[in-house]
Amino acid sequence: MKTSLIVVKIMTCTLMLFIFSAGFAFCETTSKKVLQSVDKTIKIRQKTQKDEDRWVSEKEVLLNRYKQQMEKQEELKKSNVNLSKQIKDNVASVDLMLVQINEHERVLKEIAPYLADVYAKLKYVYESHLPFLLKERSKRMANLKKILENRDNSVSEKYRKVMETLIIEAEYGSSIDVYSDRIKIEGKDIQVKKLRLGRLSLFFQSLDCKRVGYFNNAELKWVILPHKYNASVNAAFEIGLKFRPVQLLCLPLGKVGIDE
Predict the structure, then answer these.
(1) Within-domain flag for 151
(2) pLDDT class for 226, splitting at 50, 70, 90?
(3) Is residue 56 part of a domain?
(4) Whole-number pLDDT of residue 28
(5) Do 95 and 159 belong together in one domain?
């Protein structure tokens, strides 16, 4: 009886040990599986978080690009408006330029005969009026003729030169001048001083101041004045040379002055 009880106890202890061993092994296996599952979940969550962070970053970049594109679009709209206005303005400017070109061509056609006419009048004045500064004026007229006849010169250059010559010739009418020159009188070629009173009269004075005279534009020759005019003509020369102050003088001007 006692032996049977001992055997039962031994078997019971053995069974309990087996049960405890199996439970321990089961718990250990389950724990490992749980840990693996948790680790996997954590990794998935970490990956998901990284993906979310990446998408948030990409979303921000895309939003910034979208904003930039919208701003560029607005700028392009403004540029298109400005370009449209510029195109309209340019078209208007081109139309105006075409009108001006046509007007310019018309003026060019009309100005060439005008310049030729002015030159002809200047030449007539030079050849038929008082013979003063002949070398200087002759050279100027010859250069002007070359400029007008040269087709390579622009109309504006021709116009400028004609006006320049015209102004110089006009200024002679409001100035006086004293200079040395040679004249032919009574068949002799002599050195004298000349006094130009504008374009009104041209006098000469011998180097010894004993003879004075004037240019008779009607007869195109130099004429010696009577001795009574020496003082007034010599005084006029001194005023022209700025050797004495300006004063009123009685000078023979033209045929009436000489007859008196």
Answers:
(1) yes
(2) very high
(3) no
(4) 59
(5) yes
**240 closest CA partner among 198, 206, 191, 210:** 198
Mean pLDDT, residues 226-245: 90
**Is the same domain home to 141 and 181?**
no
153 & 137 share domain: yes
Cβ atoms of residues 133 and 179 within 8 Å: yes
185 and 251 belong to one structural domain: yes
120 and 142 both lie in a single domain = yes
What burial class does residue 217 get, using C-beta atoms within 10 Å of its C-beta: 0-12 exposed, 13-18 middle, 19+ buried?
A: middle
pLDDT at 260: 47
Range of the domain at 182: 176-259
- The pTM (predicted TM-score) of the whole model is 0.56
Kindly report the number of other CB atoms within 10 A of residue 254's CB atom: 13
Are 235 and 249 in contact, with CB atoms under 8 Å apart? yes
Residue 223, in any domain of the structure: yes
Q: Which of 9-13, 123-127, 167-171, 210-214 has the lowest mean pLDDT?
A: 9-13
